[in-house]
Specification:
This protein has 144 residues and is mainly beta. It has 1 helix and 9 strands.
Length: 144
């Protein structure tokens, strides 16, 4: 277990597409984004906003948001606590802001208990073709 003095957590966000080939679109370049590290809490409240520009509404349904939750370690590589994958197919983003609470699962495992939860907000603006993702908080993260 990490010393309470040094542990913390952060969330990395990227999108993924298995069927898109968007030449000349901002969607083509996937630059992972990350929150700041919040230390000494197993229930971090990030409240950080990330905006993806240039995504036409017709292509939103083909994307998925991939969140990786990391345990910060000052002296070595960060450990992966788990991940959340949210396919945007079937989600009606035209209705305005949407809150979602998803269980954090261990990487490469379908069901995993005890990894915690991630709360996010999604909002799509069709007039500007922007998808706004707010990483609100994580809760019940494991200590290691």
């Amino acid at each position: 277990m990490k010393s309470p003095q040094w542990w913390g957590s952060s969330v990395h966000l990227a999108w993924s597409s298995q069927s898109l080939s968007l030449h000349g679109s901002a969607v083509r370049e996937n630059h992972p984004m990350k929150t700041r590290v919040l230390r000494k809490t197993l229930d971090p409240a990030f409240d950080e906003t990330f905006t993806f520009y240039g995504i036409p509404y017709t292509q939103i349904q083909e994307l998925a948001l991939h969140f990786t939750i990391l345990s910060f370690d000052r002296f070595s590589r960060d450990d992966i606590i788990g991940e959340v994958l949210i396919p945007l197919s079937g989600i009606e983003l035209s209705e305005g802001k949407m809150l979602m609470n998803r269980e954090i699962i261990k990487r490469n495992v379908r069901k995993s208990s005890g990894r915690g939860e991630l709360l996010i907000s999604l909002c799509y603006q069709s007039t500007t073709n922007t998808l706004t993702v707010v990483v609100l908080k994580a809760r019940h993260l494991p200590k290691s």
